[in-house]
Every structure is written in structure tokens, then in C-alpha cells.
Specification:
The protein is about 40% helix and about 5% strand. By secondary structure, it is mainly alpha-helical. The protein has a domain of about 40 residues. The protein has a two-stranded antiparallel sheet with strand order 1-2. A hairpin with a 2-residue loop joins β1 and β2. α1 packs across α2. The chain is elongated and about 70 Å long. The protein starts with a helix and ends in a 7-residue tail after the last strand.
Amino acid sequence: MALTTDDIKQIAHLARIGLDDSAIEPLRADLSTVLDLVEQLSAIDTNGVEPMAHPGNAALRLRADSVSETNQRDSLQSPAPLVEQGYFLVPRVIE
């Protein structure tokens, strides 16, 4: 599908994009190429082809949910000035 310069100006206006006159021709060529590719894809017979959620049909590899580190809360909180029931206490900053 070949776009005209007026088509590009109308698209830019609708998208609220300011274009210089020098940028219109390269953009027209690029958008025309994209629309040509879409037309080629639309011409393909897809009857009987089941839609896929992902083209790779990849299965996720999950790791085992296991503890990899020991609890170090007490040693990590020891330098803190105020701690209560495992939480850091900080001064109120919002009244």
C-alpha cells in the first residue's frame, strides 16, 4: 500500500507529531514498506491454524523452591540504633 505525502501529514496530525518536510519522504517509504508486509501477511491462508499464545511454545524452567541462605536477621540488625520485634525503627518523617 503506497502512502502519499498527504497521508503522512494526516497521520502526523492525528498523532500530534510535528514533522519537518525533510522527514516526510523517508517516513512515507518506511510506513509504505510496513503496510506492504502487513498486506503480504494478510494474504496468507490461515484456515485451520490454531492461534498460539506464544510463537515459541516454550515451557518455563522453574527451580525448586528451597531455602538458599540462613536467617541472619539478628546479625544484620545488630548495628541498627533501634530495632523492635525484628523491624527497624526509624524516626517519623510525616506528621
